[in-house]
Design goal:
alpha/beta
Chain lengths: 339, 339
Amino acid sequence: MARLVIDAVGGDNGLAPNLEGAALASREFDKDDELIIVGETEKARKYIEEHKLDIKINHRFVDAVNNVTMDDSPVKAVKEKDDSSISKGLQLVRNREADGFFSAGNTGAILAFSLVKLGRIKGIMRPALGTVFPVGNNPLILDVGATPDVKPEMLYQFAIMGSEYCRYSMGIDKPSVGLLSIGSENSKGSMLSQKVFDLLNSDNRLNFYGNIEGSDFFENKVNVIVCDGFTGNVVLKFGEGMAKYFKESLKGIADTSFKAKLGLGIAYNEIRKFFNTVSYDEIGGAPLLGVDGISLVGHGKSNVKAITNALKNARRLVENNLIKHISEHIEQRSFSEEG
Amino acid sequence: MARLVIDAVGGDNGLAPNLEGAALASREFDKDDELIIVGETEKARKYIEEHKLDIKINHRFVDAVNNVTMDDSPVKAVKEKDDSSISKGLQLVRNREADGFFSAGNTGAILAFSLVKLGRIKGIMRPALGTVFPVGNNPLILDVGATPDVKPEMLYQFAIMGSEYCRYSMGIDKPSVGLLSIGSENSKGSMLSQKVFDLLNSDNRLNFYGNIEGSDFFENKVNVIVCDGFTGNVVLKFGEGMAKYFKESLKGIADTSFKAKLGLGIAYNEIRKFFNTVSYDEIGGAPLLGVDGISLVGHGKSNVKAITNALKNARRLVENNLIKHISEHIEQRSFSEEG
């Protein structure tokens, strides 16, 4: 049984994808699951009625203000917007009225509210935001921005959390974990990454692969890629920028000659299909790991499919008791802030 | 007048591209320039004779052993291979018999030998390896791997060196400098990047743009991108991996249907042309900045064009007195290792 909160007003496209996604996801939920739709209740009810959406499980509405913009700083949001859908939604998880939360709203604000409302899992030093890389074997990368300044033991904890997430979200029994570095040998890398290498190597509950390099994101070598939040964020955004650059370049190539335009026109559908597979719609949201509750973040541009997948993922993580598993793995080691 | 050393045996393809590149570059050199061809002299002479290469400027041969493999560790190379072409070539620069050095050999070994033979420019804390990113406005990124562990003042020095390189290699009068970070505002980023931001902001000889993010590599925002050698190396290799992935994906798309194959076949030449422009052949080698002499590194796969451009670039840097300009800019500030 899972009780899930959806931020109905989160994301660039407002109610529509959130409510449509909720309805679609509910088809695959159990009878005793529950959905709590947080946001502008009146508008949400109206949308559901007008569009004849059928949410097939128990659901209820909680009214909240749609006032966290995509540009709000996390600090500002937490200080001034406690009446927001993000805040109220996470409060429901905190109060044990719900088991998981999803929002396609402002990532920084969701991170900040999650930390404030849910707190950290006992023993966890810092949270990590993970994201599934939509190519190849879909590795999970963490952290991609929650914790830019890390100590070795934090990265070790990210590896544990990523490994458990991979197991309980994607059903991979012994996910392999790679440490992002700048050389494949143990002796290569920064002082930080060399220390982390030894920590990861010392935990036989982890399936540690060793160092991986930037190019290995595309080589299906590991299921989990561990890095600090600074490097992870830079790489993630670099990848988005490069994908956009390639798409635009193909358009540019089509403009260079009649032959190119003709050829790319003929292949257009297949090219489009390829770019659709390399998309974040399938990944089920980005998990904020380390907080004491399921909290998933969606891209601001999330469409119905992305929302549907995120809710199904949230349900899976609740059912599989992700938080308990992380907690148990963490408890077996003692950590010090000194790292 | 420039006296340049070429490592005739550096790179995956041995003598051929190095000697062909030298001959081609020499056409654009002055009569009083000199080329010193370091490597297996007998074989080199034979190649030049057999292929009727015309090296149009003064040149001489220095015999050396071709024994630094692409897999040798820098430490091993420096310890055991002082008779190598890399070592002997850099020794010529050290002895003031030459003004600049280029090799397409083992990058780590070239870095290590450059440091040992040339030493650092007075005041420079750590060296940085720069590389010109072959898209858009061709920004220079540094460091891409020479110094993975940095302090704020090191990054500040990288900005100075990158800015001077951009000026004297590419002729950009006031190159704009961006600091790679994970948010555009000053307050965003790691503790390190926030400190570097203030340092860059304080030097009015730098044209400091502010923070840039991973996606901005493709947006033509700045001429120089400053980052630590860990992040820079990860991003560089990620970009190489992603470019390869896209190329292979296009081939994969062609295999999905007859229509796709036909279309991409028709557009093939233009697509190939595009990928040829996004190449490192044009960038003139990767400069190792901070050592007391011109030292350029080429990709192991460097072809004739890449070698030609690297030698022309080396000559430009000598003629324009890059080392003196870096030295003067650095001298105006005082740096402490404490950063």
